[in-house]
Amino acid sequence: MRIEEDMKLGFKDVLIRPKRSTLKSRSEVDLIRSFIFKYSNYSWSGIPIIASNMDTIGTFKMAISLSKFRILTAIHKYYSFNEWKNFINQSSKETLEHVIVSIGTSDVDFFKVQKIFSLSSALKYICIDVANGYSEHFVDFLKKIRNIFPDKIICAGNVVTGEMVEELILSGADIVKVGIGPGSVCTTRVKTGVGYPQLSAIIECSDAAHGLNGQIISDGGCVVSGDIAKAFGGGSDFVMLGGMLAGHYECSGKIIEEDSKKFMLFYGMSSDSAMKIYSGEIRGYRASEGKRVKLPFRGNVDATVRDILGGIRSSCTYVGAQKLKELTKRTTFIKVNEQENCIFNNFTY
Ligand code: 5GP
């Protein structure tokens, strides 16, 4: 047994120090980033935020709404090939360029992804997603996918440590997805005792990825737009959101009405709810590692997205970053014991 003594940090442990700035207004801030990738020949420009590939969040409807903002959606892996076919036939090139096709590591997914990509050359992104990206089987699967799709942008995860980021990049990933345990409906840390505070994971993993000309996605743990700014400030190239986009019309969660108020159900992909839907049962050897929650229904996602983007633009203004790309360079984190003043939180109207 070994103990690492340095304290690892989450978003709530830091704030970003303001810096002198020549920016007059948030409207001067450019959130568009352009990327070229280690393996893929494609380049991509857009706002590097991604709707999570959870089945309630990564929907076709979400992709249609978010692509208008030039934000990406990781489409969940449970759509059938026919549903994909319909979506692709009805979608503009612009929408498809903001779509990431998610897959697991099963044979079924291996064949399905090839059929999906044969439908349109506008699709650029594949995300190979498993809860635990540390397995040999996962690395072998990644190599197989890279062989078949030499030119596509391949994301793979999740991991939280530099050495595994390096292994995934060297095995064919352009982008590594980082996060174990920080999610809003995740109980992995409680169930298993395993995890890594997200901000430290971002700082360490982005350093490892950038050293090999790769990129990272910070996945999970953002609860306010300030957290997204901290993720970018810590070195993340992309930020994936689940809970912050939950409870909207574009989500596929069930809507229920109580006392004439509307709520939407949201659950973790390893929760008992998800396991029942997709495997028909909770397998004997598996415990649920996800929660289910009931959230106030918030209508269209547009207003939420505008609010999030406004927040990030404001963060950039505070540190004098005219482009989102400059945010990392201009970020100094200060460790803190306090964040928001909550005195009137029960009195909002
Ligand atoms: P959020 O933005 O809601 O904090 O985090 C979203 C991320 O949580 C997802 O992209 C995914 O990586 C992770 N996640 C989703 N469902 C589950 C679950 O049931 N268990 C665990 N451990 N993580 C989950």
Secondary structure topology:
Layout (H helix, E strand, L loop, with lengths): L13 E3 L16 E4 L6 E9 L8 H8 L3 E5 L5 H10 L2 H4 L2 E5 L3 H11 L7 E5 L6 H13 L4 E7 L2 H9 L4 E4 L9 H5 L5 H14 L3 E5 L5 H9 L4 E4 L13 E4 L2 E7 L4 H8 L12 E5 L4 H19 L7 H4 L2 E3 L14
Parallel strand pairs: 3-4, 3-10, 4-5, 5-6, 6-7, 7-8, 8-9, 9-10
Antiparallel strand pairs: 1-14, 2-3, 11-12, 12-13
This protein binds guanosine-5'-monophosphate (5GP).
Tell me about this structure.
The chain is an alpha/beta fold and 349 residues long. 33% of the residues lie in helices and 20% in strands. It has helices spanning 60-67, 81-90, 93-96, 107-117, 136-148, 162-170, 188-192, 198-211, 225-233, 272-279, 301-319, 327-330, and strands spanning 14-16, 33-36, 43-51, 71-75, 99-103, 125-129, 153-159, 175-178, 215-219, 238-241, 255-258, 261-267, 292-296, 333-335. The strands form three sheets. Strands 3-4-5-6-7-8-9-10 form an eight-stranded parallel β-barrel, surrounded by six helices. Strands 11-12-13 form a three-stranded antiparallel beta sheet. It has a two-stranded antiparallel sheet with strand order 1-14. Helix 1 (60-67) links the parallel strand 3 (43-51) and strand 4 (71-75). Helix 6 crosses helix 8 and helix 9 (225-233) packs across helix 11. The longest helix has 19 residues, at 301-319. The protein starts with 13 loop residues before the first strand and ends in a 14-residue tail after the last strand. The model has no long low-confidence stretch (mean pLDDT 96). It binds guanosine-5'-monophosphate. The site of guanosine-5'-monophosphate has 25 residues, from strand 10.
